[in-house]
Amino acid sequence: LDTLEKWVTEIFSEIPNNGLPKPSFGHLTQPFDTPEFHKLYRGKKVHSLTITWALPPQEQYYRVKPLHYISWLVGHEGKGSVLSFLRKKFWALALYGGNGETGFEQNSTYSIFSISVTLTDEGYKHFYEVAHVVFQYVKMLQRRGPDQRQVIWEEIQKIEANEFHYQEQTDPVDYVENLCENMQLFQKEDFLTGDQLLFEYKPEV
C-alpha cells in the first residue's frame, strides 16, 4: 500500500483542482418527449419484444435501488408471474426487465427501464397481446403498491449481500476502474458497496 500510495501521489499530484462541482444535466428534462418515442417499431426476423420507459433520474436513490426492486418483481418466473402466464400460452421463452444503473441507462437527466420478452413463433404472431399482458402486470404492481412487499425487498437485500460477500475475486484493474466510477456516483462510505447492496427500504421511492 505504501508503494501504491507513492506512485499515485507522484502521478496525480500535479493535476490541478479547479474547484468546480461535478457537472449535472438535470435541467435537461424529458429527453425522449417526442412523437417518435411513443410508437411501436417492428423489425423483421427478430423474435423479441422490448418495451422501454424513460423515467425521471433515479441515481440519487442508489441506497434504495427502486428499479432493481421492480425488475425483480417483473423478472420473477414462478407461479403468478407474467412469464409463467406467457409460457402457458406458448408465447414466450424468457423475460428480462431492468436498468443497468450507469451510463446511458441511468444518469442525471433520466433513467431507462426496459422489459424484453423473447418470443416464440406463436408469440410473434400475438405480440400485441404479449404487450398487453406486460402492461397489465405493470399496472397491477402499480395498483397494489409496495406497502405489502417489504419482505420481498428484504429478500433481495439478503441475496445481494450474500453475492457481495462471497463474490469471486475480480481482475485488479477492473476492480480499480469500477471503484473510480463509483467515486463519481456514491457517498464516500459507499464507494465499495453502492453499486451492489440495498441499504434502505423506502416504499414512497
From TrEMBL:
Molecular functions per Gene Ontology: metal ion binding; metallopeptidase activity
Keyword Hydrolase: yes
InterPro entries cross-referenced by the UniProt entry: Metalloenz_LuxS/M16 (IPR011249), Peptidase_M16 (IPR050626), Peptidase_M16_C (IPR007863), Peptidase_M16_M (IPR032632)
Entry superkingdom: Eukaryota
Domain Peptidase M16 middle/third stretches: 164-204
Keyword NADP: no
Family the entry assigns: Belongs to the peptidase M16 family.
Protein name: NRDC protein
Organism: Emberiza fucata
Gene, per the UniProt record: Nrdc_0
